[in-house]
Structure formats: structure tokens, C-alpha cells
């Protein structure tokens, strides 16, 4: 089953999925996330995903939500990704790439014998995620690019401006959000934004707060 042929609506996606809690890791629909897997429980998670739907749910642990170090409480919203590339190294690691399919809401965690965590999830709140480039025309592209230019200048970074100028709005906004150096709460706000326009606005706002702070510390949403 190909990624584009297989997942066209919430009903096409598995309701129970393995989840990978990783702070600061933001996956968005149609985005690409490379992962270096080496912990035994997550090697087992990848093995299970490859045997079944090839789906893994990326989700952030909520540091303020309690739980234990081995099983922290999770945010309620994550993003499902399909394993689109896979390689095994000589020392037993897996190098995989996930392609974002759609966001999900955690309904419950499934108790069971697996060393990795699994959740019952729903995609119904995020039906628009299955429509490529939805809402692109509403994005303030110039505002996004201005914030990026200011951030690049202040931090003396090098970027591929030709690739950025050619990127469609969805790919531009989502890639910048995924690659941004901001904290867990900021990444979660970008993930939970109801549409692409709002996500771009969150990205710009967080970037501007970081520029105002100017001290290199982690920005905080008020």
C-alpha cells in the first residue's frame, strides 16, 4: 500500500498504533522525519510497525503532566507517520524515515505486553490533514519569510534561499516548524494549530519572541 493511495481519510488509518514519545520532535503531515533507533524497546516498536501498518505515532511527553521517567504522561495530540525508508546498520541500529500522514488525538493508552507504548487514537478532528496543501492561499508567506530572514541574520545561519523561495506554502511552513530550534511547548502549539494559516502565525510569533529575548534561552509562550 503506497502512502498516497492508502491514507485518504481518518477511516483509512489504524486505530491502535505504537507511539514514540520524543521531546522536541515535531512531525507534520507530509513532512519527513529521519530517526536513529537504538533502544531495544524502540527497535521492537519498528519491527512491529514493519510487520503491520508501518505506522508510528510521534508524540511529545508532557514534562508537567506527571507520570514516571520510563512512562511520562503524554500530550493528547501527536502525528502519525509511515515508515517510508528503512536501513539496518552493522551495529544493530535502525535508520528510518517517517512521512507524516495525519495528526491524531489520544483516546486511551493500551496496556499490554509490548515493551513500547501503544495508544487508541482518533484522527477525526484532523480530516483536513489528508488534503495536501489545504489552506495555502491564506498563509502570510511574506510574514513567514521576514521572520526567517531576521532569525537567520541574528543567528548568523546559512540557508538555501533558492529552495525556500521555490517551496509551496505548506512545505515551507511545515518544514520550518519541524526544523525550528524551539521548545516542547512551542512545538506542541505548532502541532495543535487548527490550520496552516494559524501554524504559520504561531511560527512567526515564537520566532519574534525569540528575537526580542535575544539571549539565546528557550522562548516561552504566554
UniProtKB/TrEMBL annotation:
GO molecular function, a single term: peptidase activity
Domain Lon N-terminal: 17-211
GO biological process, one term: proteolysis
UniProt KW keywords: Hydrolase, Protease
Name of this protein: Lon protease 2
Organism, scientific name: Methylobacterium organophilum
Amino acid at each position: 500500500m503506497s502512502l498516497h493511495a492508502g491514507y485518504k481519510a481518518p477511516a483509512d488509518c489504524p486505530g491502535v498504533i505504537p507511539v514514540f514519545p520524543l521531546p522536541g520532535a515535531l512531525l507534520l503531515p507530509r513532512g519527513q522525519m529521519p530517526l536513529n533507533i537504538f533502544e531495544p524497546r524502540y527497535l521492537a516498536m519498528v519491527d512491529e510497525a514493519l510487520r503491520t501498518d508501518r505506522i508510528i505515532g510521534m508524540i511529545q511527553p508532557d514534562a508537567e503532566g506527571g507520570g514516571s521517567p520510563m512512562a511520562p504522561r503524554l500530550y493528547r495530540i501527536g502525528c502519525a507517520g509511515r515508515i517510508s525508508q528503512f536501513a539496518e546498520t552493522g551495529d544493530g541500529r535502525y535508520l528510518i524515515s517517517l512521512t507524516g500522514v495525519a495528526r491524531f488525538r489520544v483516546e486511551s493508552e493500551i496496556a499490554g505486553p509490548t515493551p513500547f507504548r501503544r495508544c487508541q487514537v482518533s484522527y477525526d478532528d484532523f480530516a483536513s490533514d489528508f488534503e495536501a496543501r489545504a489552506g495555502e492561499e491564506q498563509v502570510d508567506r511574506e510574514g513567514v519569510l521576514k521572520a526567517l530572514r531576521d532569525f537567520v541574520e541574528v543567528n548568523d545561519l546559512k540557508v538555501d534561499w533558492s529552495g525556500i523561495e521555490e517551496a509551496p506554502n505548506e512545505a515551507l511552513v511545515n518544514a520550518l516548524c519541524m526544523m525550528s530550534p524551539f521548545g516542547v511547548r512551542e512545538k506542541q502549539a505548532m502541532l495543535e494549530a487548527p490550520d496552516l494559516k494559524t501554524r504559520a502565525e504561531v511560527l512567526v510569533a515564537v520566532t519574534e519572541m525569540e528575537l526580542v529575548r535575544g539571549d539565546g534561552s528557550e522562548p516561552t509562550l504566554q
